[in-house]
Amino acid sequence: MPIEKFVKLTSTCVPLPVENVDTDQIIPARFLKATTREGFGAKLFYDWRYNPGGSPREDFVLNNTRYSGSILVAGKNFGSGSSREHAAWAISDYGFRVVVSSFFADIFKSNALNNGLLPVQVSEDFLAQLFEVIEKDPHNTITVDLENQTISIDSLQRSESFEISAYKKSCMLNGYDDIDYLVSKVAEIEKWEKADSVDA
Amino acid sequence: MSSNPKPKTIIEKIWDKHVVQAIDEETSVFYIDRHFIHEVTSPQAFTGLRNRGIKVARPHKTVATADHNIPTQDQHLTIHDELSRLQVNTLTKNCAENGIELYGLNHPYNGIVHVIGPELGITQPGMTIVCGDSHTSTHGAFGTIAFGIGTSEVEMVLASQCLILSKPKKMRINVEGKLGKGLKSKDIVLYIISQISASGATGYFVEFAGSAIRDLSMEARMTICNMSIEMGARGGLIAPDKTTFDYINGREMAPKGEEWEKALAYWKTLPSDSDAVFDKELHFDAGDIEPMITYGTNPGMGLGISKKIPSLDEVKPNAHPSFIKSLEYMGFAPGEPMLGKPVDYVFVGSCTNGRIEDLRAFAGFVMGKKKAENITAWIVPGSKQVEAQAKKEGLDAILREAGFELRQPGCSACLAMNEDKIPKGKYAVSTSNRNFEGRQGPGARTMLASPITAAAVAVTGRITDPRNFL
Question: B322 vs A114: CB contact, 8 Å cut-off?
Answer without folding.
Answer: no
